[in-house]
Structure formats: C-alpha cells, structure tokens
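Contributing: when you submit paired examples, paste them exactly as shown. First protein:
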Amino acid sequence: MNYDDFQHILFERREPHILWMTLNRPEVLNAADARLHTELVEVWKTIDRDPWVRVAVVTGAGRAFSAGGDLKLVENAYRNFEEIARILDEARDLVYNILNCDTPIISAINGAAVGAGLVVALLADISIASDRARLADGHVRMGVAAGDHAAIIWPLLCGMAKAKYYLMTSDFISGPEAERIGLVSMCVPHEELEPKAMEVAKTLATGPRYAIKYTKRALNQWLLQAAPIFDHSLALEMMGFFYEDMMDGVNALREKRPPRYTSGSR
C-alpha cells in the first residue's frame, strides 16, 4: 500500500524526517473497523519502504487514541470460521509487522487505548501517555482470552503479577498509573503530549541511525523469542469466538450494562 491508499490514517511529514500519523475515525473514538484494522497491519511495511522517514509517531484524532475493535467487526466473526481465520491472520501480522519494522515508532497516547489501538500503543518502541489516557485490554470483558500482543509484552513491561491482574480483570489503567507500573515509557500532562513526542522524535531522527535501528532490533528479540506464547494466546482467543460468552460481552458493551456471561452462571 502507498500512503494515498489509507482511508483512516492521516500522514504529515514533519522535519527532521518525522512521519506524524493520526488514526482518524474520531466520531467513533478511532475504533478499528475492518478497513482500519487492515491499515494498521499494512502501514508498518509502507513506512519501512519510505527512505525519507526516520521516525514514525502515531496518535489519535479527537478524544481517544483508539477505542479498540468495532463491535460490528466482532459480531460478524461470531461462529464464522472463515472470518475468524481472517482476523487471526491479521492480528498475527499486526504484531509481527510492528516488531519487524526497522523504523523507530513512538506512540503519543492522547486518550483511551483499547484492543487493536492498545497493540499499537504498547508495541511502539517508546510510548508516551497523556495524563488523560486510559488503557485497558478488553479481551476478557469481551468473553475471549487475552490474545493480540498481551501475553508477550505485558509481563515484560509491568511484571507477571500486574499483567495477570489487569489482563484477567480488564480493568482500566490511567496514564500516571501506567507509567508507575512500567507499562508505558512516560506520562506527561495532556497539553505537553505532542511537544514531548516531537522532542523524543527529533532526538531519534537526528541520532545515529544504524545504532538506534540495531538497538531496536536487538531488544525486540526478547519479544520475538516469545512468539510461541503469542501464537498460542491468539489461538486461544479465537476459540472464544465460538462460545456464547463472547456475544454476552458484546451485548453488554452495546447496551452499556454489566455483562452476564453464560459460563459464569453455570
């Protein structure tokens, strides 16, 4: 894909050689429909093919970074093997494409970050959260296992005890608390988020390109060594798309009420 092919991501070139990317579905808090989910998978390869770009910064338009997957996308996959297989492949490619992207990535987390949005926010090489940010892995709330990125990176970032608590409860984490437990690189006042992201981006863009690139590549080996854990978690997540609990979670979110899970009442 070329930059002109993207419908829901805006691109702005900023000096020195910084690509500023904005997830742009603000009317739905930048939730990832099928199109945006595909774009989030493909954009990292597009960036790596652009010789001008030395650093990429990703943020969200409006009040949110990204409110996760569009509920219609999830509903369409319920007990639909072919759609589940497609989502599995895209979810897998999203994680590996980010990890294999040689361009340094900075996330400027301006608000809520859930689901696919949280994958991008936390797999970025440097994650900067606003003090208004709220992060959550909502898989368990949706009635499926925490797949995507969670199993490979949360224990490394914040330790197994915190990872198990937040992944098994789907509780939200504020920007300051995310910094305190090590889930993000730093948290700054909301009005300072963009200037801080640009400051860090300029440092990387004007630094020793190959030293930064190869430092990133070496550190990402920790995550790539956990590939079997990730693939296992993703398969377990997809199993949940065949069980009633998933639609229990979807309906609760749609109706804005506490969920009542089929398996929890037996």
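Second protein:
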Amino acid sequence: MSDFSAYSNYTSLQLRRHPHGVLEVVMPGAGANKSSLSTADANMHRELAEIWRDIDRDPDTRVALIRGEGKGFSAGGNLALVEDMANDFDVRARVWREARDLVYNVINCSKPIVSAMHGPAVGAGLVAGLLADISIASKSARIIDGHTRLGVAAGHAAIVWPLLCGMAKAKYYLLLCEPVSGEEAERIGLVSLAVDENELMPKAIEVANRLAQGSQIGIRWTKYVLNNWLRPAGPTSDTSLALEFMGFSGPDVHEGMRSLRELRAPDFPGGAPF
C-alpha cells in the first residue's frame, strides 16, 4: 500500500494496489481458508460505508475495483448483526447511518468504481456492486435482494434498481426476492456486462486499467453528471432505508431470522400496521 494513512484503519476489507492507479477492494471470505462467502459483520459494514470517502481523497488512486473472495461476491449481513439490529435501538440507528452513507459515498466518490461479481451477491456488498459505475458479473452469478425474505423493506435497492432495469422488473425481483443470474442481469440492464466466470477478473482489470489511463477530468466529470440521475432519488432512498430499519423493530424480522437459521420457508403473520 501507499503512504495514504487513512487505509491503515481498515481491518476487514483488504486493499491491494495495481499499476496505473487501480486500487482493488476485496471483501474477504470467511473461515480459515477464506473460501466461503464474505458476510458483513459490524466492522465490515462500517468499512464498506467509509472506504469510498478515503478513495476519493487518495491521490494515488484513479479507479477502485471491488470484488469478493471465496465462493461469491457477498453474502449480506451476518445473522448476529441482524439480531443486534432487531434488539438494540442504538445498533439499529448506527447501521442505518452506515447504510445511508454507503449509498451516498459511492455516488459521490469522484473516482470511477468497477465491480466484479461472482457467485451470490447479496446485502451491503451488492449495493456497492450495483451502484458501481461499471458493474461486471459472471454469467452464473446470483444477484439477490433478500430483504423481504427477512421480513423488512428492500432499502438500498429503491434508488437504483428501477433506473437500471425498469419499475416492472424491479418490483418483480424485489417483492419476491427472486434471484437474478448474471446473464439475465445483463439482459435486463441491471449490470453493465456479464462474462464467463474465468473471464471475470481479467475483464474487470482490463476495464479498470482503461479507466485509469483515460482522461481523469473527462471520466470523473462524466460520472458526476450521470450520477445526477441518482441524486434526485435521494429522498426515495432515505424513505426506503427508514422503512427497512423500522422493520427491524417489527415482528416479521424475528420469524425471518428463525426461518433462515432453521433452513425453512418463513411463516409470516398476516397483515401490516398500515
């Protein structure tokens, strides 16, 4: 790493420098050999929200490339964090703030961001993956927004899914928690590009290098302009996150957690308080 001191604070994300000013952000897998899915514990969630501000300030980084390690891109928040959010207001408020910052920090990072998604892509990692300026998925990737399966509103997705793939598709996948393959995600416009899995990282590095070696003035200002399509949706994002985190204080999330632990379909009570 460079002498950019802010990166010394990161203990969950792994940061690797490549030529031409490309910074690789790795969400490490779990387990002794790190071959299983990356899950976002409290520290990983915080770092995923903050890293984009530091990348923006880093004079040696021109492009960020985010990927997962092990069997997939990201597995979402671990159940211990979800349980803490359901039971502790202070935790819920802190994670809500981080979730909000993650959205806005990715959008406002002046440096272009490339994502390389393989296997399951869920949760906070998926937010960064889909908000990235160029999102690349393996054809066999499984993109899943699992919020309604857990019993809460689909928070982050509201700002970008309808713009990427249209409202009809967004409602179908978000309301039903239906998985989207990387190949289908490219077809409906949810990701920029889908490739065979063995081509994923070479293609992502190629795209990142092209961005890094291009006009930084032209590329960064074009990103800023295009992201003005997302900025007016900020109130929609804020509302969706508020409703998601209100849901963590409700009854459905407890059944959602139990069903995930017991590997069964959830049996949610009928009705809603509105």
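If you have annotations for the second protein, write them as plain sentences, like these:
The chain has one domain: 5-261.
The CA atoms of residues 82 and 257 lie 8 Å apart.
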